[in-house]
Design goal:
- The protein has four helices and no strands.
- The chain is mainly alpha-helical and about 100 residues long.
- It has two domains: about 30 residues; about 50 residues.
Length: about 100
């Protein structure tokens, strides 16, 4: 018995998926709020301060420096040199592609 399912149009499938995603989002939000203790702010003052964006660059630089210090410098220096070479090569290639596109 070969019973064919009715084919939905792309717009109908899209609307069905959007509705399904909205339902899943609300379910997840409800489940997460049930796990949180009442009256406890998420992240607190430290979380709000760090997520404000003022410390993203300094924290990134500090993380890179700590990574270099933690690793052996003899292994890290060639890796950094290679990374910088690849970065310069990509910048040159991207600028050439931008000039061609214009």
């Amino acid at each position: 018995m070969n019973i064919e399912k009715p084919r939905l149009t792309l717009a109908a499938r899209r609307q069905a998926l959007i509705a399904q995603c909205a339902t899943q989002r609300s379910d997840i939000a409800r489940d997460i709020s049930a796990l949180r203790p009442p009256g406890v702010p998420t992240g607190g003052a430290i979380g709000r301060y760090l997520s404000a964006g003022r410390l993203k660059l300094p924290l990134t630089v500090a993380g890179v420096v700590l990574g270099i210090v933690a690793a052996k410098p003899s292994r890290v220096v060639p890796l950094i040199a290679t990374g910088l070479s690849v970065y310069r090569l990509m910048q040159t290639a991207l600028s050439a592609l931008r000039k061609r596109a214009v």
